């Protein structure tokens, strides 16, 4: 009986399937080796962090400290201000002529009424003389008209005297008529009585005829008297017409005088205008202020009311500073304005000494494009430190805040999470404490939140500190190296720092 025994056939090369399996195993071993290496170095790195922090904490860092205190500090609003003159005048000639004199220097302080320029005034002088001659001629015509009116008024008086005399003659004739009427009545009565007696045969016809004749004579006398009165009244009426005519002449004379006076007035106005034009040949300063550059020099011919000024004068005492604050400050501003004028201080590049003034103007409109309202401070500027066009740092003081917590400005640091200070603990370690600082006043930061009065804060050496770091307080009287942190001056501002 034959039994099959298995056997292995050897060959120089393995089948393909087996080769692929061996390569996968090699790659897996390489990956495990790399992961192990990475994990080793990672664990080593992780273990080094606590060591570094422990080293930092165990290191004793020399620092300077200060104590948070309480102080009355002002409540202020800061902004960039723009200095502008209280008033600006461009001096423009009002007469045409050649400049023959300049009586000031550029940049000089001038006073109101001070002579600045003179122009050639010969043509104006000639015009004045001509106008004066015309006025004199007109005044002579007025005098002549008044003399004529005086003569005509004399004729009126003479006519009135004649009228009075003729009116007297009328009255005299009327009196004669009255007397003759009485005599005529008597003669009529006698004639009637003697006529009756004659009819009765008591008297002769001659006697009766005599009384009848007397009656006729008396009647004739009455007629004559009436004619005399009529003639006298006609004369009176003629006198009245003469008076009216004379009064009409006087009225004409009066109108002539008024016309002559109107001519005098018109020519007098022309004379005044000429004199005013002549006065423009002398140019005076309209305000107190500082003169700028002399823009038109002596010898040049200038035109009246031209576009080019001779000089620009700016009133700089007092002077104004314009600045803007956010409209959100307006309610607080109005509240404190009710208690009187508010103080405004300014500083500028090259001078940190504040210049004091007062708030003089609050605009009536909020600028909708910027959300701010314009304010203006007034400054005496007696020393002439402020110049129109200058930019300044403006601080408006609203009120005083008592018992505010303050620390030196260099104690407050800025981190990724905001402002903080290092507070010194009793075991000579420090703690990072977040704070809210509102403003900086005299190198002190006002702390609204985070630090209480009496605690010590680090003011120098913060660069090497973390919470829990050991510190050694340096003697503040010993010479100190420059701090790693630059000194900061922070202040609320609506538009940024001044250049």
Give the strand tally: 20
Report strand order across the widest sheet. 2-9-12-11-10-13
Mean pLDDT: 83
Unreliable residue runs: 1-25, 38-49, 478-499
Q: Give the tally of structural domains.
A: 3
Within CATH, the superfamily of the largest domain carries the name: Efflux pump adaptor protein, beta barrel domain
Q: Supply Rg.
A: 61 Å
Oligomer: single chain
Give the class from helix and strand content and strand pairing.
alpha+beta
Our measurement of the CA-to-CA distance between the termini, rounded to an integer number of angstroms, reads: 117 Å
Q: What is the CATH level 1 assignment of the largest domain? A: Mainly Beta
**Main pleated-sheet profile:** 6 strands, antiparallel, barrel
């Amino acid at each position: 009986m034959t039994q099959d025994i298995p056997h292995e056939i050897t060959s120089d090369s393995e089948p393909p399937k087996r080769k692929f399996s061996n390569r996968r195993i090699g790659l897996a071993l390489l990956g495990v080796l790399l992961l192990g290496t990475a994990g080793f170095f990672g664990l080593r790195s992780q273990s080094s962090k606590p060591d570094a922090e422990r080293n930092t904490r165990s290191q004793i860092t020399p620092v300077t400290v200060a104590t948070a205190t309480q102080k009355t500090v002002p409540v202020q609003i800061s902004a960039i201000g723009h200095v502008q003159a209280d008033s600006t005048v461009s001096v423009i000639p009002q007469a045409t002529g050649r400049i023959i004199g300049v009586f000031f220097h550029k940049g000089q302080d001038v006073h109101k009424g001070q002579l600045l320029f003179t122009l050639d005034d010969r043509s104006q002088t000639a015009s004045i003389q001509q106008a004066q001659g015309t006025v004199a001629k007109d005044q002579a015509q007025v005098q002549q008209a008044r003399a004529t009116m005086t003569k005509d008024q004399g004729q009126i008086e003479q006519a009135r005297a004649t009228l009075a005399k003729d009116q007297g003659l009328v009255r005299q004739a009327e009196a004669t008529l009255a007397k003759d009427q009485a005599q005529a009545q008597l003669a009529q009565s006698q004639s009637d009585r003697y006529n009756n007696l004659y009819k009765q045969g008591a008297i002769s016809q001659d006697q009766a005829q005599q009384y009848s004749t007397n009656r006729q004579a008396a009647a004739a006398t009455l007629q004559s008297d009436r004619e005399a009165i009529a003639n006298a009244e006609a004369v009176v009426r003629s006198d009245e017409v003469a008076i009216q005519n004379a009064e009409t002449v006087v009225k004409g004379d009066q109108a002539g005088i008024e016309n002559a006076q109107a001519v005098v007035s018109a020519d007098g106005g022309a004379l005044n205008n000429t004199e005013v034009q002549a006065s423009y040949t002398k140019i005076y300063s309209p305000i107190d202020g500082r003169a700028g550059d002399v823009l038109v020099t002596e010898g040049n011919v200038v035109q009246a009311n031209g576009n080019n000024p001779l000089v620009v004068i700016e009133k700089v005492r007092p002077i104004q500073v314009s600045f803007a604050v956010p409209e959100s400050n307006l309610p607080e501003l109005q509240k404190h304005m009710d208690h009187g004028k508010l103080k405004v201080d300014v500083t500028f590049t090259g001078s940190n000494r504040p210049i004091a003034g007062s708030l003089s103007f609050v605009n009536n409109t909020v600028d909708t494009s910027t959300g701010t309202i314009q304010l203006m401070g007034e400054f005496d500027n007696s020393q002439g430190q402020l110049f129109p066009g200058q930019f300044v740092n403006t601080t408006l003081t609203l009120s005083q805040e008592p018992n505010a917590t303050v620390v030196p400005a260099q104690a407050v640091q800025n981190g990724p999470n905001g402002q903080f200070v290092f507070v010194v603990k009793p075991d000579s370690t420090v703690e990072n404490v977040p704070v809210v600082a509102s403003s900086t006043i005299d190198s002190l930061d006002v702390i609204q939140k985070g630090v209480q009065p009496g605690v010590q804060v680090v003011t120098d050496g913060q660069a090497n500190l973390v919470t829990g770091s050991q510190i050694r307080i340096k003697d503040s009287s010993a010479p100190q190296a420059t701090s790693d942190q630059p000194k900061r001056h922070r202040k609320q501002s609506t538009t940024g720092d001044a250049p």
